[in-house]
Amino acid sequence: MKAMILAAGRGERMRPLTDHTPKPLLVAGGKPLIVWHLEKLAAAGFRDIVINHAHLGGQIEATLGDGAAWGLRIAYSPEPPGALETAGGIAQALPLLGDAPFLVVNGDIWCDIDFGRFLPSTAGFRCGPAHLVMVANPAHHVGGDFSLDGDRVVYANAEQTLTYAGIGVFSPSFFAGVEKGAVMKLRPLLDAAIAAGTLSGERFAGRWVDVGTPQRLAELDQELRTA
What does residue 18 show for φ and ψ, rounded to 5 degrees? Predict the structure, then answer.
């Protein structure tokens, strides 16, 4: 199973830190955010990683190289200035991802989830068209994104909403309708899957941080350094 780390965003809310450094290379706990992902993916048994990039993408390639430092093989999917959004970026990278379901992780989160639970060899996990990891709503997103009805993702209801964690498993067919090179968000595809009743999901109760602002980066850095 391959994994893709989304690393093409400009990081506007992180400015001025991202004026000269791509967001996934910002440091927390002594390591770039993306290196935490690479270490956890390698420890979980992943070997092939695809990383998309746009803003200052050359720095990402120069820092991570071919992935050998972590026992990984990294392939890169460059995007034009402004990037292609999530669905567009994944569709662009499909030739590198192959024909089997793959894991997708946002490059600007920190999470202690065990990525190994999504590997095909893990008993009890089977992926349909798409499977999302959900978390409790953070303070900056109290309204949440969706709700869960068992293991099925449904539109947000009044009883309990959850936030998409930026971690999911997708089949290549999920992006079949996205033209290569198109700029497209992920939400329209998720909405279509919810309407069809084919979007599955789960709640993760461990540590998760959306590292979207300099303040949250500083807080995570302090937490990791004192852990």
Answer: -90, 5
- Give ∠ CA 58-21-56 in degrees, rounded to 5: 30
**What is the pairing mode between strands 163-170 and 102-106?**
antiparallel
**Which of helix, strand or coil describes residue 67?**
coil
Give the pair of three-digit tokens for residue 139. 């303070």
**Domain 3-226 is classified in which CATH homologous superfamily?**
Spore Coat Polysaccharide Biosynthesis Protein SpsA; Chain A (3.90.550.10)
In angstroms, the CA 185 to CA 157 distance is 23
Strands 3-7 and 31-32: what pairing?
unpaired
**pLDDT score at 60:** 97
CA-based torsion, 122, 124, 126, 132: positive or negative = negative
Q: Is the pLDDT of residue 194 over 90?
A: yes
Outline where DSSP puts E strands in the chain. Answer: 3-7, 27-28, 31-32, 48-53, 73-78, 102-106, 109-111, 130-135, 146-149, 152-155, 163-170, 199-203, 208-210
Classify strands 130-135 and 199-203 as parallel, antiparallel or unpaired: parallel
The residue count of the chain comes to 227
6, 104 contact by CB (below 8 A): yes
pLDDT tens digits along 107-138: 999 999 999 999 987 655 567 899 999 999 99
Angle of helix 33-44 relative to helix 57-64, nearest 10 degrees, comes to: 50
CA 145 to mean position of chain CA atoms? 16
